[in-house]
């Protein structure tokens, strides 16, 4: 089985390390971006990830702007990337804003175990 390429955009060092390890145990190749600008930079280099896991509250460029950039990208392959938002923002307006921007799924960190998060992510990989 080939490895699945993922872009994990998470500034919480502990959670990022934990998710990266769990995803790698599932034969995923994980690129970690600790801020929104690094996420955007990573999407300019080949090969593209199969899935983007995106926090919203990030330094430099926030996740809303990253998502907006992905969905308005000139490259159809970037524009079509599945984006799973993983955030502690759980209010209805935040969730609606993310859905309006085109996220494929919205997961609230505090309501899920790392294993459940990994299960959701793997559904979007081939």
Number of domains: 1
Overall SS class? alpha/beta
Rg from alpha-carbon coordinates: 13 Å
Q: Largest beta sheet: what is the strand line-up?
A: 2-1-3-4-5
Contiguous low-pLDDT stretches (5 residues minimum) are: none
Helix content bin:
40-55%
Number of helices, where a helix is a run of at least 4 consecutive DSSP H or I residues: 6
**Apparent shape:** globular
Give the biggest beta sheet.
5 strands, parallel
Number of strands: 5
Distance between the termini: 10 Å
Query: How do the SSEs run, as a string of H and E?
Result: EHEHEHHEHEH
CATH class categorisation: Alpha Beta
The CATH architecture would be 3-Layer(aba) Sandwich
Strand portion: 15-25%
Mean model confidence by pLDDT: 95
CATH topology name, in short, is Rossmann fold
Q: What is the CATH superfamily label?
A: Response regulator
Can you characterise this structure?
The chain has 126 residues and is α/β, with parallel strands linked by helices. The chain has one domain: 3-Layer(aba) Sandwich (Rossmann fold). 41% of the residues lie in helices and 20% in strands. It has 6 helices and 5 strands, in the order E-H-E-H-E-H-H-E-H-E-H. The protein has helices spanning 13-25, 36-42, 63-71, 76-79, 92-101, 114-122; strands at residues 4-9, 28-33, 51-54, 83-87, 105-108. The protein has a 5-stranded parallel β-sheet, sandwiched between helices. Helix 5 (92-101) links the parallel strand 4 and strand 5. The longest helix has 13 residues, at 13-25. It is globular.
